[in-house]
């Protein structure tokens, strides 16, 4: 495994899904609001999924899935006499687009011609299937089919030959700027499925000589990071902005490299599993995640629905969902709020709901990225008190944090990153002393501990632990207040 390398493009295997979902959403909106001209309107749904397929070149099976989703949308929104014909016609159109993407897009200058041709052919094939089914089901006259319907299909196809390239060019620029399009010059995605990869230690998380480069970046975001997180740890990862903290957190959940792409050297393990050999969804069974933008993780209307969402996706029974929901909500102080609207919760309560939805799946590790950036001091203190309780109950916690004062009382270990490298790791007081001595991220050192370090440097007793230093200075402050009250 020495200097093992894994390389993939941004979005990995799912870039086609992201782009297709966005384009189908755009197609649905245009379908609902677009006016007709002389009784005709472009088929926006076909045009948008043609753009998505040409841009991402998914497999034929994936294209069939795109067509089926488009068909379901059309069944719900179509005003035709037999909307279920879309269940056949749209997959046919998507497969025609797939043929164009795989057979024609590699030619020089294809990006200027193929979108128009694809829009016409996919629309013509889909429309031919649809009107043929419609004539059969409704028993329409052959003359209507030949003289009205087929010419109408050709006319809509010509319209799509115009609008498809109009949509293609801005979509190409947008998704390329987001790194979601496959690059013709990029090396082929790595495949580690045949390798026997196992960590040496027994940690629940491990990084072994990890260096990582984001796509199109020459400098690494992480360099030779070695780390093992043991069961029961409360690890705080800190460092200046741009030091690689969030990148390390994303590596532990598999988003690096599977989603962000780029080049990973070394290996990251979740338990005994190498992240390059397992999907993000598979790793999520053991590692729960709370992002800095925790609101982005809330997808339903009520607390109960939010709790059930991830559990239903994992196949739990209704009884198990109710039991796990009640247990998890009780742990975070939201018991009995199953019917409460998510929008009625405070920011701290929404964050607790995200924690509860993660805890309900019973992960071994909770990875939390910059969790208190949107919380006030009181909410921050309550949040870390909750994480401390969960950690004492056996949950392993990894927190990425800039501000250390509220989290340090619960930390068993601290890791200091700077410019992508591990500068120091160990007990909180050891790392804080290193930060002060070397002038790294000193703004994050809590004032009370900085004062204790200054006293020790001036000839006072040596610093022991973070908690002891805080207690010592608190006792000293109380003694001063007592003397002032006594008239000293």
Description of the structure:
By secondary structure, the chain is an alpha/beta fold. The chain has helices spanning 15-33, 44-56, 60-77, 86-103, 110-138, 142-177, 245-252, 255-258, 280-283, 303-313, 318-331, 347-359, 377-392, 428-438, 447-457, 466-485; strands spanning 5-8, 205-213, 222-229, 234-238, 262-270, 273-274, 287-290, 365-369, 396-400, 413-418, 421-426. The strands form 2 sheets. A 6-stranded mixed sheet has the order 7-8-9-4-10-11, with helices on both faces. A hairpin with a 2-residue loop joins strand 5 (262-270) and strand 6 (273-274). Helix 2 (44-56) runs antiparallel to helix 3, helix 4 runs antiparallel to helix 5 (110-138) and helix 10 (303-313) packs across helix 11. The protein is elongated, with a radius of gyration of 29 Å. The termini are far apart. Residues 483-488 have low confidence and may be disordered.
